[in-house]
Design brief:
By secondary structure, the chain is of the alpha/beta class. It has eleven helices and 13 strands. It has a single domain (about 5-335), classed as Luciferase-like domain (TIM Barrel), CATH 3.20.20. It has helices at about 25-40, 60-70, 85-100, 120-125, 135-150, 190-200, 215-235, 255-260, 290-295, 300-305, 320-335, and strands spanning about 5-10, 45, 75-80, 105-110, 185, 200-205, 210, 245, 250, 270-275, 280, 285-290, 310-315. The longest helix has 19 residues, at about 215-235. Pfam families: Bac_luciferase.
Length: about 350
C-alpha cells in the first residue's frame, strides 16, 4: 500500500493556451484541485515553492486555505527553500496552518534549487556568515526551525508584559503538536539523505539527483533511500520515517491524453548540470496505456522502496484535466500494482 498524492509546480502564463493565466488562477485552482483530489481518494496535495518566478511562492496562505476546505488529505510542500526563510516566523506560519488543517501538514524543505535570480536570498535579507556557503546557511536555518518546532521555552518573559504569561521561559506560538515529526528534507544526494536522517527528518526525493555511480536513476534513488533508512536506524530515532518519491506518470486512456503526453512514452533518463559542475541524473517520465504502465512501474526500484508517491501534475491544463490524470492512476494503475 502506498500514499498517493499530487505535486504541483504552480505555473502560470498569460497565454491563451494556459488555464492558469495569473497568480490568482493558480492559487484558486490549487485549492479546487486539492478538494477534488480528496474526493477522489488521493492522499496528498503538495506544492513547489519558487521565488522570483511565475509559480507558487509563499506557501502558508495556500496550505491554510486548503486545510480549511478539506478534512482528510495531507497538505504539503515539495520543497521550501530554507535559504530564504526566517525560522522563527516560519514556525509561527507553519503552526497556524497545521492547526487550521487539524495536524495534516507535511512540510518538505531543502537547501533549494537553482533560482530565477542571482543569490535571491540576499534580497530577502539573508547572507551566509564569513566562510560559509548558502547551503550552510540553509542547514543552519533548518536546524533552528526544527529546534523551535519542538515547542520548548527559550525566551525570557518581560517583567511587565502586556498580558499575563505562563510560568517559565516562553516559546513561539502557536505551537503545533507533532509537526516536528512531519518535516521532510528534499535530498539531492546520498550524503544529504543521510544528514536528513540524522536530523530526524523524513526523506523527499525528486525526479533528479546528483549522479553517483552511473546506474539508472531509479536504482540510484533506491540506493539513496536505503542509505537514509540505515542512517535513521543508526541515529536511534524511535518512530518510523517516511519516504516519498515524485514521478511524472500519465495513463493514456483518451485521445487527449495521447495528444498531450504520447511522446513521453519514449522518455529516458538524462544527464545534465543543475548546480555548477555537479552532474545530475534526471529520471524518465512514464506515459503509456494502463497495462503497460503497470509493467513499467513494477520495475521502478525507488517507487518500491518508498511509502509515498507524488504525481507531478500539469497544472496549466486546468483542474478538470488534472482530476482526470489523478483518477486514471488511482483507478487503472494503483490497484494492479497493489498500491490500493
Amino acid at each position: 500500500m502506498k500514499k498517493i498524492g499530487f505535486l504541483s509546480f504552480g505555473h502560470w502564463t498569460d497565454s491563451p493556451h494556459s488555464q492558469t493565466r495569473s497568480a490568482a488562477d493558480t492559487l484558486l485552482q490549487s485549492i479546487d484541485l486539492a478538494v477534488a483530489a480528496e474526493e477522489l481518494g488521493a492522499d496528498g496535495a503538495y506544492f513547489r515553492v519558487h521565488h522570483f518566478a511565475r509559480q507558487l511562492a509563499s506557501p502558508f496562505p495556500l496550505l491554510a486555505a486548503i486545510g480549511a476546505k478539506t478534512d482528510r488529505i495531507e497538505i504539503g510542500t515539495g520543497v521550501i527553500d530554507m535559504r530564504y526563510e526566517n525560522p522563527m516566523y516560519m514556525v509561527e506560519d507553519a503552526g497556524a496552518a497545521d492547526l487550521i488543517a487539524g495536524g495534516r501538514l507535511q512540510l518538505g524543505i531543502s537547501r533549494g534549487s537553482p533560482e530565477q535570480v542571482v543569490d535571491g536570498w540576499r534580497h530577502f535579507g539573508y547572507q551566509p556568515a564569513e566562510g560559509q556557503t548558502d547551503a550552510d546557511m540553509a542547514r543552519m536555518h533548518t536546524e533552528l526551525f526544527l529546534k523551535v518546532l519542538e515547542g520548548g521555552g527559550f525566551a525570557e518573559p518581560a517583567p511587565r508584559p502586556m498580558f499575563p504569561n505562563p510560568p517559565g521561559l516562553l516559546r513561539v506560538e502557536p505551537h503545533a503538536p507533532g509537526l516536528r515529526d512531519r518535516i521532510w528534507w528534499g535530498a539531492g544526494s546520498n550524503g544529504t539523505a543521510v544528514w536528513a536522517a540524522k536530523q530526524g527528518m523524513n526523506l523527499m526525493s525528486s525526479t533528479l539527483k546528483f549522479d553517483e555511480g552511473g546506474a539508472p536513476f531509479h536504482v540510484q534513488q533506491a540506493d539513496q533511500i536505503r542509505a537514509f533508512r540505515k542512517a535513521w536506524t543508526e541515529a536511534g530515532w524511535e518512530h518510523e520515517p517516511r519516504v516519498s518519491v515524485s514521478r511524472s506518470i500519465f495513463a493514456l486512456t483518451t485521445d487527449l491524453d495521447r495528444a498531450y503526453f504520447g511522446a513521453d512514452g519514449r522518455s529516458t533518463d538524462s544527464i545534465g548540470f543543475i548546480d555548477g559542475p555537479n552532474k545530475a541524473i534526471f529520471g524518465r517520465s512514464y506515459a503509456a496505456e494502463p497495462d503497460v504502465l503497470v509493467e513499467q512501474l513494477a520495475e521502478d526500484e525507488a517507487i518500491a522502496e518508498a511509502d509515498t508517491l507524488l504525481l507531478t501534475v500539469p497544472n496549466q491544463l486546468g483542474v478538470e484535466f488534472n482530476v482526470h490524470v489523478l483518477e486514471n492512476i488511482l483507478t487503472h494503475v494503483a490497484p494492479a500494482l497493489g498500491w490500493r
